[in-house]
Amino acid sequence: MASAENVPTPEKPTKAHAAPPAERTARPPVDASALEHRNLRGGEFWREIPAFANVSEEEFLDYKWQMKNSLYGEDKLLELMDGLAPKAFVDDVLRGFHLAPMAVRVTPYLFSLIDWNDPLHDPIRTQFIPVASRLTMDHPMLTLDSLHEQADAPVAGLTHRYHDKALFLPLDTCPVYCRFCTRSYAIGVDTDVVEKVSLKVSPKRWEEAFAYIESRPELEDIVISGGDAYNLAFKHIEAIGMRLLAIPHIRRIRFATKGLAVMPMKILSDERWLDAVTRVAEHGRKVHKQVCIHTHFNNPNEITEISRRATNTLFERGITVRNQTVLQRGVNDSQETMRLLVKRLGEVNVEAYYVYQHDMVQGVEDLRTSLQTNLDIEKFVRGSTAGFNTPTFVVDAPGGGGKREAHSYEHYDRETGVSVYSAPSVKPGQLFTYFDPLHSLSDAARADWKDADKREQMVQDALLAARNHQGQR
User: Fold this and answer.
1) Boundaries of each Radical SAM core domain copy (predicted)?
2) Model-level pTM?
3) What is the CA angle 6-12-14, rounded to 5?
4) Helix H or strand E encompassing 32
5) What are the φ/ψ torsions at residue 279 (nearest 5 degrees)?
6) DSSP string, 243-312
7) Which of 35, 257, 322, 445 could potentially form a cystine with 353 if both were Cys, beta carbons 3.0 to 4.6 Å apart?
8) 186 has a pLDDT exceeding 60
9) pLDDT tier at 182, thresholds 50, 70, 90
10) Number of neighbouring beta carbons within 10 Å of residue 354
C-alpha cells in the first residue's frame, strides 16, 4: 500500500464566477414590428363595405344576422362586389365559379376583412373566392379523395385510420366553404365539376357510427368534424358529446370548427350552442376526459378583436382551443406571415397545433406549395415563441398514411417533386407519395410529368430510393 506521503494532493477546485455586470450583454430593444401580433383589427371595419355601411355593431355581432346575410352563390356575391371591385376582377370571379370543386359561401364578417383595394392578392379572398386567372393545371397524380377517408370508413361518415383515433363526420355543411377543402368530395352542394357524397344530418346514421366505436375498445380519441360542428344544433352538440363520453374507453373528444375564424360572433351571441359545448366540457372534466375545440385560422388578418372576445369567452369557461393551419400559396407561405400567425394565435390563447402541407385537392393547385417551402418555414418559425405554442409541420400522406412530420420523409427529390413517407404505426410496410405542384418545378420536370411512361418511372425511382434509405438504417 502506498504511504500517505506518496498520495497526490488533489488540486483545489476553481471557483466559478458570474460575469461582472459590465461584461454582460443585453438584447437590444425590440422594434415595434416585433410586437405586431398584439395589434388586432378593431372598430366597425365592416362599415367600409357600402352594403354594410348602416349595419350596427349589435347586428353585425349577431350570428343569426351573419348566417342570414351570408354570401351564398354567385348572384349574391357578384351583386355585393359590383362597384367595390374592378369589373375585370368580377368577371374573373364569375369564370372561377364554374371551375371550382367547392360551392362558394362567405360570411359578411369575412367579406369585410378582404382588402378590396387589391382583392386579387388578398389572402382571405384567395381562400374563399375563386378566380379563373389564378387556376393552374392539376397534378396528374391528384385524386378527389386523396386521403382515402372513404376507403378507411367502416361505416358511412366514420374514418378509422389510426389505431386509437377515429374521425366522425355527422354532417356535410359549413358556415363557409373553403376552396381548399380536403373533403370537397362531400362538403356543400354539387358543383359543375363534382357530384358530392351525401353525409346529411341523420341520428340513425350516427348510431351506426357509435355502435362501431363501442365495438372497438382500442378507440380512445374521436374528432367530431364534418362539415363543421358550428352547424350542428345545440341539442346535437350535447347529444353527440355526452354519447361519446359515456363510452368507457373514449378518453378524448374534439369538436372541429372553422367557425372561430369565419364567424366568431356565434360564440358571443348563440348562448344555447356555447352552453351545450360548455356542459359537455364540464362533464368531461368530471369524468376525467378531455373535451377541446379545434379551429382553423390560416392568416393573421383573420384574427381580430372580435376573435379575441370569442376566444376569451371560451378561455373563461376552461375550454382549450387548438388551431390547425393549412399552408397555402399567397396566404401564409412567407416565413414572416407564418411567424406572425403563430404569435397572434398565442396572443388570443389558441394553441398552434398543426401546419398542414396542402392536400392534393382537385381544382386548387394554385394554392399548393412545394414541400421545401414547408421545411424552410418550419425552420424559421421554430424558436420564435414557446415550444408548446409552436405548431408541428406535417404532411397528411396521400393514400391514408396519416399525418407525418414534414421533415421525416424517407426520400425527397426536389427536381421531380416526389417525396415518400412511411407510416409504421398506421399502415406498416407501406410507402406513401406526395407530389409538389407542377408550378413549383422546372420546365423539364413539368414536361416529364406530361409523359405517362416518364411519370411512372419517376414514381418508381422515388419508391426505390426510399426503400434503399430504409434498408440503410
Assistant:
1) 160-384
2) 0.91
3) 150
4) none
5) -65, -40
6) HHHTSTT--EEEEE-SHHHH-THHHHH-HHHHHHHHHHHHHHHHTT-EEEEEE---SGGG-BHHHHHHHH
7) 322
8) no
9) confident
10) 17
| Residue 234 in grid coordinates | 345545440
Query: If we measure between CA atoms, which residue out of 364, 370, 357 comes closest to residue 437?
Result: 370
Nearest-angstrom CA–CA distance, 31 and 264: 31
Among the listed residues 185, 179, 209, the one whose alpha carbon sits nearest the alpha carbon of residue 198: 185
Q: What is the mean pLDDT of the chain?
A: 91
Please compute the mean of the pLDDT values over residues 369-396 and round it to a whole number: 96
CA dihedral 451, 457, 460, 465 (to 10 degrees): -120
Q: Specify the pLDDT at position 203.
A: 92
158-407: which CATH topology? TIM Barrel (3.20.20)
| C-alpha 55 chain-centroid distance | 31
Q: Are 257 and 274 within 8 A, CB to CB? A: no
Note the pLDDT tens digit of each residue in 65-98: 999 999 887 888 888 998 899 999 999 999 998 8
The string of DSSP letters for 162-188 reads STTEEEE---S--SS--TT-TTTTTSS
DSSP state of 200: -
Determine whether 145 is exposed, middle or buried from the number of CB atoms within 10 Å of its CB (0-12, 13-18, 19+). buried
Type of residue numbered 136: T
| Phi then psi dihedrals of residue 337, to 5 deg | -65, -45
Nearest to 213 by CA among 247, 253, 241: 247
Place of cell 375585370: 88
What is the residue extent of each domain of the chain?
45-134, 158-407, 409-473
Length of the chain equals: 473
Q: Which residues, other chains included, contact 463 with Cβ-Cβ below 8 Å and sequence gap of 6+?
A: 420, 431, 433
Which residue's entry shows cell 365592416? 46
Rounded to whole angstroms, what are the CA distances from 205 to 30, 31, 41, 175, 235?
56, 56, 42, 22, 17
Contact (Cβ atoms closer than 8 angstroms) between residue 328 and residue 298:
yes
- Residue 330's Cβ-side half-sphere holds a number of Cα atoms within 13 Å equal to 19
The residue whose grid cell reads 368534424 is 225
The cell for 450 is: 406530361
Burial of 450 (0-12, 13-18, 19+ CB in 10 A): exposed
Enclosing H/E stretch for 214? helix 203-215
C-alpha span between 117 and 127 (Å, rounded): 17
